[in-house]
User: Fold HEPN AbiU2-like domain-containing protein from Caballeronia udeis.
Amino acid sequence: MLLSNIMDWPIKDCDIFIRFLSQMKKFHTLCLTSLVRQHRIQAQMNLRYFLESTVHAAYSLVHVETTNYFDSADGQTHDPQKASRAAYRWLGEHFQQHSDEIKKIKDQIDEQTAHANVLNSFRNFLFVGGDTPEIHTSFFDFEDDPWLKVDLWECAQAGLIAAELILDIREKFGGFIPSRKAGILPQLIASNEAPLTKLEAARNT
Assistant:
């Protein structure tokens, strides 16, 4: 995956950026694997954490000082909410399109899956009536190929948004040498746009 190979080598002191980049890679992969094994809520929570890590990675690639997160002199960590507000504010001011796209996905997750919701129980709870009624509470979500395909598309789209953001910031502010694989990003973005209309139509049928 492109995110796992986006950076060849750093060319400035960007320790915090690399830390958040590692979180991006991990939780994007966890989102994908959770979807494949039919754990949608877990996938959405992983995707949310991935997006939050992306915002902090973007911010810390430019703001390489660590004081927004911790004080290396006394070892004290800073208020994580304050750090997040600074990162989101900066991103909205300098990369608004990416900020808006990240916010849109996060808002959807917050509305649908970030909190306990009885509607999500339909994914793994089933009552079968009749002479011999049955109650099914499955560990795995019930199969729903149209929804799964949309979720997989969204996972890919979030990864492309993040990769484009990080590379755009690198282009403007420097920070690392991109890998050779970064050059395929425009083709990946174009190829991921094509299936969306068909997937949404299938999901709504």
